[in-house]
Amino acid sequence: MKKLLLIAMAVLLVLAGCSKESKTIKLGVAGAHSGDLASYGIPSVHAAELVVEMYNANGGAAGKKIELVVEDDQCKPEIATNTASKLVGAEVVAVMGHICSGATKAALGIYKDSKIPTISPSATNPPLTQSGDYPNFFRTIAPDDAQANLAVDFIIKSLNLKKVAILHDKGDYGKGFAELCKAAAEANGVEVVLFEGVNPGAPDYSAVVNKIGNSGAAGVVWGGYHPEASKLVQQMKDKGMNIPFVSDDGVKDDTFIEVAGKYAEGVYATGPIDTSSNPMAIKAIADHKAKYGDEPGAFFLNAYAATVAVLNAIEKSGKTDYDSITNALRSEYVETPLGKISFDSRGDAIGIGFSVYQVQNGKYVVVNQ
Amino acid sequence: MEDFNWKEYLKDSFISMLWFSLLLFPMLVMKITVKGGMADVTYRWGYLVVIPVSAFILSALWKYFRERQQGGDKADKRGEIAALFRRTFIENRTVKKVSIISAILIMAFYPVFSGMYNTNVMISALIYIMLGLGLNIVLGLGGMLHLGHAAFFAVGAYTYGLFFKYAGQFFVDAGISTGWMFWIALPAGGIMAAVFGVLLSLPVLRLRGDYLAIVTLAFGEIMRMVLQNWGNVTGGATGISLIPRPWLFGINVTPRLAAVYIYYIVFAFVIISIITVSRLENSRIGRAWEAMREDEIACQSMGIDLVRNKLTAFILGSVWAGVAGVLFASQTTYINPDSFTIWESILILCIVVLGGTGSISGVILGALIIKLLPEYMRAFAQYRLLVFGLALVLMMIFRPGGIIKKVRKIYRFPLDEENDAAAEGQN
Amino acid sequence: MDYFLKLLLSGTAKGSIYALIALGYTMVYGIIKLINFAHGEIYMIGAFVALLVGGTLQSAGVNPAVILVVSTLAAVFFAAAYGLTMEKIAYKPLRTAPRLSVLISAIGMSMFLQNLVLLSQTEKYLSFPSFLPEFLFLKPIRGYINSTQFIILIITSIVMVLLTLLIKFTLIGKAMRATSQDREMAQLVGININSVITVTFIIGSATAAIGGILICSYMGQINYYIGFIAGIKAFVAAVLGGIGSIPGAVLGSFVLGWTESLGTGYISSDYEDSFAFIILILILTVKPSGILGRKENQKV
C-alpha cells in the first residue's frame, strides 16, 4: 500500500513537473515592488533590467538570451513563500532577491530545497550566511554585524563616547542591528545605559527622549528606518539634547534628510562604501537616469552588482545548473559597480564593506573609511 | 412600471458631480512631493474630466439601486424571481448533491492538474476557510464581533514553532525525524488555542456589543506585542525559521511533494471542519448560540446559560484557529509576528462577512475570493485593499447577509400548494 | 522628581494629541452608536489637505501666519466634507441595520480612504512643514515642553470647553443629547435627526482635522498610514473614559497618555502599546461602560 501510494505520487509529480529545454535563461527578481517598502525594492528591478539589457545586447550569457521574471513579495514572509513557489514553477535558474531579510528567510527554504542560487542586494541579517543553513544564498551587501562593528568602532575611536543609549524599532532588521551594537559595545568597554524598542508609527516619542536624557547617555545608537529616526532626532533636538546620533543604513537615505530637514544635520549613519569614483557605478547611474528619468534609489548598485555577478557566473561556467553557478560565484572575481568582488564559502561578498557617513549641509558625507 | 423621474435623477447626479469634483480635487488632481523642504505640487488635470463623468454616472446608478432596494412593487417581482431561482438551483436536492460532489472531486484532484505554485495558493485559501469557519462560530452563530481571531491563529503557529525551536534538537539527537513534531503539534496547537480562548473569554463575558469588539481587538494586539517583544523566548521579529514539514513515512520531503502532501492534510481538515460546523449549527449548542445572537435577555429568560455559551463559542472558534495556525506554520516554514496583525483579523472578518455571515458555503466562497483573487490578479494587487474596502461598504448596504446568505431551515409540506406560497411570503 | 515631572508633561502632551481625535470618536458614537473606524482617516486627510494647500501657498511665498490660517480652514472644510459624504454614503443607509453591519461598513470605509490616499499620493513619508509659531517664552523650559506641545494643550482645552458649552447650553446641543438618549423619541418630538447627525459629523471631523495639522506639525512628517495608528489609540482612550461622554474622552486620553509615558519611562518602551490595552481590559472588567460612561439600559 505504501509503495503504491509512493508510485502514484511520483507519477503525479513527474507529470506535474515535466520541463522542456528552455530557449532563454530565466532570472528571477523578487522583492517589494508595491506597498510601503516599495522604495527599497523597485530600484533593484531597474538594476536587473539595465544589466540584462546590456548582456542581451552582447549575445546574452552562455549563448542564450536572458529573460527576467519579476515577482512582488511586498516584504511579507507569507507572500514571499508564494512568490518563491511561483519563481520555482517558472523555472528560473537563479533569483536576485529578496529585499527584506524576513521575506528572504521565508523564501530561502523553498529555494534551498529546489536548488536555486539566491543572491540578495539588501538582506543583511547575519545568520543568513553565518548559520550555514543556506548554502544557496549569496549577497552583495555586508551583513549587519559588519555594520554594527563599524558603528561601535567609530563611537569609541572618533566620538569617544563611554555611555550610549541604544534604541530600535522592534523589527527584525532594526533590533538585530541594535543587539549587535550592544554586544560590540559591551565587549569594548562602552556602557549601554539604555536598550529599548520604540513603536514605529507612534506620533510621540517624548517619553523615550526623556528617558534618554535621564539615563546620562552621551550618544544614541538607532537601529531601524528613517521615519522613526527623523522623529527621534527632531524631538531630541527640540528638548535641547545635542548628543551624537548614530544609525544604520536604513537611515542612510536621502529621504531621511528630506523628511527630517534641518534636524538631520550632524546625524551619523553607516552605509555601503562610497562608490562614486567607480567607473561602472558612474555608468550605471547615468544609464538609470537615461532610461527612468531620475536618480536611482536604495540598493541600486548592490542589485546591479548582484545581477552582474550571477550572469558572469553563468557566462564563465557556461552552464546554468546549481553547482556550476555556485562554484563560479565562489571562484571567480567580477567587476561590479561596488568594486571587484567574489564570494566566500558562506555566501558573503569579498571586497564589500561599510563606511560611516554624516549629514553635513544637507548631504551625506563620508567621515570614516 | 413607475414614472422614471428624469429631472430628479439629473439634478441629483449633477450636484454629486460638482460635489465630488470639489471633494476629490485635492486628492486626485493635486499631487504633492516634498523636495528640500519645499513642497512641489503638480496637477493631474486629466482627473478633472474623469471625476465628474464617473461621479455623474455612479451617483445615478447609486440612486437607482437604493430606490430599488427601498421597496415598491419592483421588490416583490424581484423577490419572486429570486425565489424561483432558489427553488430550482439551491434547494433542489439533486442539484445540491451533484454540485457538492463535483466540487469535492475537483478539489480532491486539484494538486494533480495544477503546479506547485497553484497548489500552494490553494493551501493558503483552504487554511483561511478553516479560519473563517472558526470565526463564523463566534460571529455568525454567536453574534459576537471578534476582532482578535488572528491571535489564536498565532497561538497555533507559535506552538508548533516554539516546540520545534526548543525540542527540535532532542528529536534530531534521538534520531527521530523532526517531521513527527508536526503531528504532535496539531492537537497541541488546538489545545493551547483553547486555553487562550478561555483566557480571552474571562474579561469578555460581561461585555456586549462594541465593548466586546474592543476587548477582543486589545487581546489580539497584546498577543502580537508579546510575541514581538519577548524575543528571547519567541524569537521576536526574527521569527522562527526552518520549521519542519510533516512526516511522510520517512521520505525526504521536497517543496513539490510537501505542497501536495500538505494540501491533502489541509483538505481533510477542511472537510472535517465543514461537517463539524454544520452539525454544530443544528445541535442544541448551535441553537443556543443563535438565540444568544438574536436577543441575550430573551435567551437568558429561556434558561440558557450565557456564560457557558460564550465560553464554548470562543473555545471552539479558537481551536479551529489554532489548528489552522499549525498548518500555516508547516506550509510557510517561517513564522514571525508580522503575519498576525490586526489586519489579519480584519481580513478573516471580511471573509465571513462578505461571504455570508453564518453560512458555511458563504465562508468558503469568501475565503476563496479573498485569498485567490489578489494572488491571481497581481497586476491589480495595489488596488486590492481599495476594492475590498469598497466591497465591504456596498455589501453591507445592499446585501448585508453576504454573498451567500444564510438560509434558515425551511420546513415545507409539498402536498399543500397554498400553504407553500404563504410560507414563502413569511420568510 | 524632575524626571517624573518631565514624564508627566510628556504624557499630558501625548494625551492631548489623543484627545483631539478621541473627541470626534466619542461624539459620533454618542449620537449614532457607531464606532467610526474611518475617523482616523479623516484626521489623515485633513492633514494632507493642509499640506497640499500649505505647500502651494508656500511656493508662492505667502506669509506663514496666513498659510497657517488658510491651510487650517481648508483642512477643516475638506475634512468635514469627507466626513459628511462618508456618512451619507456608508452610514445613513444603515441606520436601521444591526450594529455589526455599520461597523463593518466603517471598516470598509477606512480601508478605502487609506488606499485612496496611498494610491493617489504616495506611500512615502513626506516632510510636513510646521507653520506654527515658536513661543520664545518657552525656550527656558524646552526640556520639559516645547512650543508645539504647548499649543496642542491649549487648543485641546479650548476645543473641549467649546464642545462642552455647545452640548450643554445651545439648542443644537440639546438636540444632540436627546438624539443620543433615544433616537426615535427625539424624532417624535420634532428633532430633525439628519441635521443633528450632520452637525455631529462636521464637528467631529473638524476636530480631527485640527488634530491632524497639529500632530503632523509636531511630528514633522505625514504618511497615509498615520490615521490608523492614531485612530486605534484614540479609540481606546475614548472607550476608556466612557464612550459617548466628552469629558470622558478627554479624561481617557490623558489617562492613556500618562500610563504610556510613565510606563515607558519607568518600565520599558517595548511594551508601550500593551499598557494601553491592558489598562483598557482592566477598566472594562471593573467598570464595563468606562470611567465616566453611563450604564446603558438594555430594553427588552
Would you kindly provide a written description of the structure presented here, covering whatever features stand out?
The complex is a heterotrimer of chains A (369), B (427) and C (300). Chain A has 369 residues and is α/β, with parallel strands linked by helices. Chain A is built from 13 helices and 15 strands. Chain A folds into two domains: 23-143 and 277-350, Response regulator (Rossmann fold), CATH 3.40.50.2300; 145-272 and 354-368, Rossmann fold, CATH 3.40.50.2300. Chain A has helices at residues 2-17, 38-57, 77-89, 101-113, 127-130, 144-159, 172-187, 206-215, 226-238, 254-260, 279-292, 300-317, 322-331, and strands at residues 25-31, 66-72, 94-96, 118-120, 137-139, 163-168, 191-197, 219-223, 245-247, 268-272, 334-336, 339-343, 349-350, 354-360, 363-368. In chain A, the strands form three sheets. Chain A has a seven-stranded mixed beta sheet with strand order 7-6-8-9-10-14-15, with helices on both faces. In chain A, helix 3 (77-89) packs parallel to helix 4 and helix 9 packs parallel to helix 10 (254-260). The longest helix of chain A is centred in the first third of the chain and has 20 residues, at 38-57. Chain B is built from 18 helices and four strands. Chain B is mainly alpha-helical. Chain B is globular and about 80 Å long. The two termini of chain B are 26 Å apart. Chain B folds into two domains: 6-70, no CATH class; 95-398, Orthogonal Bundle (ABC transporter involved in vitamin B12 uptake, BtuC). Chain C is an all-alpha fold and 300 residues long. Chain C has one domain (9-227). Chain C has a two-stranded antiparallel sheet. In chain C, helix 2 crosses helix 8 (193-219). Chain C is globular and about 60 Å long. Chain C starts with a helix and ends in a 14-residue tail after the last helix. In chain C, 60% of the residues are buried. The mean pLDDT of chain C is 83. Chains in contact: A-B, A-C, B-C.
